[in-house]
From TrEMBL:
<feature type="transmembrane region" description="Helical">
    <location>
        <begin position="49"/>
        <end position="69"/>
    </location>
</feature>
<protein>
    <recommendedName>
        <fullName>histidine kinase</fullName>
        <ecNumber>2.7.13.3</ecNumber>
    </recommendedName>
</protein>
<keyword id="KW-0808">Transferase</keyword>
<feature type="transmembrane region" description="Helical">
    <location>
        <begin position="110"/>
        <end position="128"/>
    </location>
</feature>
<keyword id="KW-0175">Coiled coil</keyword>
<keyword id="KW-1133">Transmembrane helix</keyword>
<feature type="coiled-coil region">
    <location>
        <begin position="168"/>
        <end position="206"/>
    </location>
</feature>
<feature type="transmembrane region" description="Helical">
    <location>
        <begin position="75"/>
        <end position="98"/>
    </location>
</feature>
<dbReference type="InterPro" id="IPR011712">
    <property type="entry name" value="Sig_transdc_His_kin_sub3_dim/P"/>
</dbReference>
<keyword id="KW-0067">ATP-binding</keyword>
<keyword id="KW-0902">Two-component regulatory system</keyword>
<keyword id="KW-0418">Kinase</keyword>
<dbReference type="GO" id="GO:0000155">
    <property type="term" value="F:phosphorelay sensor kinase activity"/>
</dbReference>
<feature type="domain" description="Signal transduction histidine kinase subgroup 3 dimerisation and phosphoacceptor">
    <location>
        <begin position="207"/>
        <end position="272"/>
    </location>
</feature>
<dbReference type="Pfam" id="PF07730">
    <property type="entry name" value="HisKA_3"/>
</dbReference>
<dbReference type="InterPro" id="IPR050482">
    <property type="entry name" value="Sensor_HK_TwoCompSys"/>
</dbReference>
<feature type="transmembrane region" description="Helical">
    <location>
        <begin position="148"/>
        <end position="170"/>
    </location>
</feature>
Length: 438
């Protein structure tokens, strides 16, 4: 928050009711000047009233010093100036009092009432004094001069300080309003900056989670198959060289496919390599925000076609698992149709991860992959039977990070779908997911 000079001065404080020391010095100086004026004017007042001159001087000093209270009680100052108007005293106090009253936060009806009282009082006193002077012969002008002098004097002593005070008060309130708005805007900007930083941190965390999930999906399945084939290669290398050669070729193919998918995924993260940044519906992928955190990574070529796994690749995926020794039964229900890239990639990843888990935890078990195309959704299910007792999984020693099911659930739920997984009554395991088609 910025602090203006006035705020710093206000923070220092002043004596009694003054907010600043210079305000106190100004009011005391005006009070001294008003007291001296009233004391001087108290001399003719005392002579006209037939009282001692000292009493008139003391009365003038006391009345004029009331101006020191103008910021604390402006109404009292104006009332005192009206009260001593018949004695032709307190002109300075009346002008300064009216200005302070008009610049204050008091209601307009109170300011108007006191200003009217001061105007009427000055008008009457001036009218009487001028008429007396003309009666004594001090003035030889016509009768028109009496009301003219009275009106001119009363307006001259009342209107300028009143109008100036109203202007200063309105300007002060405007400045306070602008200052409050500026402070409010600064607080809002600071709050927005904090929220933006929180959203950026959240987006970074989501992006890290997404990248970790993609790395897991790309690497786990391919490497698991490579480990299975490597174990089989080790077992048949001496007994069946031809089969060993085929297994070695499969391992090489799996490695190349894993590298290809890794390049495609990491291409999304590259920048400044001379290639246009990946875009989605005309918007840079980096600007998609939250949607990028829940969508599968994909590289988009110059024609705008998304590269990456889709449902049409399920046959290849099932064939790779079958080549690794798994008995897989694939069945498709409903009319085959295309879906959005995010939906197809998520469905593919769910089946891929489920098959990977079968390789890890139930090697040799028969597996059923079912895909159903419905009116407004797509459903998939991967279920395996209990693994045979003599399994080669122990020899392969496939590690498990425990993030496969979590990643599948995150993908499906992010698209508004439902994900269910758990053991079956027969001793196997089932993974089911339903994803909205739009």
């Amino acid at each position: 928050m910025t602090t203006t000079g006035e705020d710093r001065a206000t923070a220092l404080g002043g004596p009694w009711w003054w907010a600043r020391w210079r305000s106190a010095v100004l009011d005391v100086s005006l009070a001294v000047a008003s007291a001296v004026e009233c004391a001087v004017e108290g001399v003719p007042f005392a002579r006209d009233a037939g009282i001692p001159v000292a009493a008139g001087v003391v009365f003038g000093l006391a009345a004029g010093s009331v101006l020191v209270l103008r910021r604390r009680w402006p109404i009292a100052v104006v009332l005192v100036s009206i009260a001593i108007t018949p004695a032709q005293m307190g002109f300075l106090m009346g002008i300064v009092g009216l200005y302070t009253l008009a610049a204050s936060e008091l209601p307009r009806r109170i300011i108007g009432s006191l200003a009217g009282m001061s105007l009427v009082g000055t008008l009457i006193v001036t009218f009487v004094r001028v008429r007396q002077d003309m009666a004594r012969g001090d003035l030889t002008l016509g009768d028109w001069f009496v009301p003219f002098a009275a009106i001119t004097t009363s307006l001259g002593l009342t209107a300028p300080p009143l109008l100036l005070g109203l202007y200063v008060g309105a300007r002060r309130r405007l400045m306070e309003s602008l200052r409050e708005r500026a402070d409010s805007l600064e607080r809002e900007l600071q709050l927005l900056a904090e929220r933006a930083e929180e959203r950026a941190e959240w987006a970074r965390n989501e992006e890290r989670t997404r990248i970790a999930r993609e790395m897991h999906d790309v690497v786990a399945h391919r490497v698991s198959l490579m480990v299975v084939h490597a174990a089989a290669l080790q077992a048949v290398a001496r007994k069946d060289p031809e089969k060993a050669v085929r297994n070695a070729a499969l391992v090489g193919d799996m490695g190349r496919q894993a590298l290809t998918e890794l390049r495609e995924m990491l291409g999304v993260l590259r920048s400044g390599d001379g290639r246009a940044a990946p875009r989605r519906d005309g918007v840079p992928l980096a600007a998609v925000g939250v949607a990028a955190a829940v969508a599968a990574s994909r590289v988009v070529d110059e024609e705008g076609v998304a590269d990456g796994p889709c449902l049409s690749d399920l046959d290849v995926l099932v064939g790779q698992s079958a080549a690794a020794g798994m008995v897989v039964d694939l069945s498709v229900e409903g009319d085959t149709r295309s879906y959005a890239a995010d939906i197809e990639q998520t469905a593919f990843r769910v089946v891929q991860e489920a098959l990977t888990n079968v390789h890890k935890h139930a090697a040799g078990a028969k597996t059923y992959v079912r895909l159903a195309h419905r009116v407004s959704e797509i459903a998939m299910q991967v279920e395996n039977e209990p693994p045979p007792e003599a399994s080669s999984a122990s020899s392969a020693r496939l590690p498990s990070g425990g993030n496969g099911l979590v990643g599948m659930r995150e993908r499906v739920v992010a698209l508004g779908g439902v994900f269910v997984s758990g053991p079956t009554d027969a001793g196997g395991f089932r993974v089911s997911a339903v994803i909205p088609a739009s």
